[in-house]
Write the structure tokens for this entry.
Amino acid sequence: MELIAQRHAKQLYQAVNNDRQHLAEFLPWVGSMKSVSDFTNYIKNCRLLYEQKKEVSFVILLHDVVVGRIGLHHLYLDNKTAAIGYWLTKDAQGQGIVINSCKKLIALGFTEIGLHRLEIKAATTNLRSQAIPEKLSFKKEGVLREAELVNDKFLDLYLYSLLSHEWTKQTTNH
């Protein structure tokens, strides 16, 4: 995991372009990312949101190659909340990469930023994505009905949450 920077634009584009069909199944933005310059603009926006303390974005690296992205989105410091979002190329799945990246992000959110609540949303049909919060002991709160438009179809999302004291209890018990 490495803080996102302009030097990652080409590799992010390559990761998405090489795995477009897989990623587009659950991610609404894939179709609009058509060039390295689209990622350059995206990274500029990430940096702006970072400076405004609204987001922290990282690339996920495997053997020094970008294979995904993870971040704290919708940072709301007044309420001490944020949402975790992630994606990973198909070839990098099944190696515990997202779980390990989430653990680092959770620690960052709760210990360094001082958040109280983290959320993860996963499509009700995306079993791989649901496995992440479930393995990390997030609580499933319910279904957000038709909450995300992907490929001209509204998807239902499960909403998961983890509170700082639950995470602290987990880390001291393990």
